[in-house]
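We read letters as residues; the fold follows as tokens. Both lines appear below.
***
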Amino acid sequence: MPTPDSPAPTRSPPPRALGRWALIAFAVGGLAAAFGYAAGPLDPHRLIPKRIVDTLQNNGGLHPGYRRNHAKGVCVIGRFDSNGRAAAYSKAALFAPGRTPLVGRFALPGGNPYAPDGGVSIRSFALRLTQADGQQWRTGMNNMPVFPVATPQAFFEQLQAGAPDPATGKPDPEKQKAFFASHPETAAFRAWAKDRKPSASYATEAYYGLNAFYFVDAGGHRHAVRWRVVPDNGAAAAPLSAQDQDVLARELNQRLAQGPLRWRLLVTLAAPGDPTADATQVWPADRPQIDAGTVVIERAQSQDDGECRDINYDPLILPDGIIASDDPLLPARSAAYADSYRRRTAEEAHAGGRPPQEAHR
């Protein structure tokens, strides 16, 4: 789940490494990540954010001041250059021709800020774009084209299946096998993950929003959409080995030393009947697509004190012209992100760290 880190004094030592499938099993998101929520009291049949965040924390280890998922990352600063082509579909000011500043974050899944870069193939890219009128668009994307499950309950079960066994420090393969067998909707994700090699570059990955939203035009008409960003940054780097450490941040800085990095923002328009409440299903490839402009990243910052450090990349913080769909993962993400944010900022305050730059809103 895209979220910030704490200053060095609050950091804890690395826990035992979790296997690649353990990370995939409990930390796919990004969008991404803590997706188990339903309003109401805690009972065996309902989920609240605390249960999901507790499980993420149990799986990844407690690292005070860090995000409970996507704990390891790097801040980036840049802009969105709109070409105006999406303005006919959304009245959001950022889609008018011109520039909108952004603060982003690349990250790995999982709650361990010391995890090896090559331990898992998932990468995430979160953005906060701020319009001149102060309204913001926050979005969290991942480099996988589908999410493994469609509901908060299924995600919670996935987290439970990926919990490390105290005796081994690794998930129980039989529990994971049973989970996937009982959730056939995970097939598309598993097919993607099976042969996916961990990339050595954030810059060469495409990132998918996964959840559906609606663009609202000036006439009040709604258009169901999904978005992704596609890189224009040269060749992909060679895959990482499982234990490669801190390669991604170094490689990103090396690329940025040569100039800005760019991704095209592509918006796909749904046809009637395309699912908006199921992130495990892709829309047909022949759906209309809008090239809305270019995401430009100009420089990177340490997540310890960079501008992304205290941003909650809540996917329901949206400007006029974008609204949430009926996807049940969206309110789940929002609620769990808020719970994680409250925990890490409280931990920083208790440890005497500097106050957060921005409260959740």
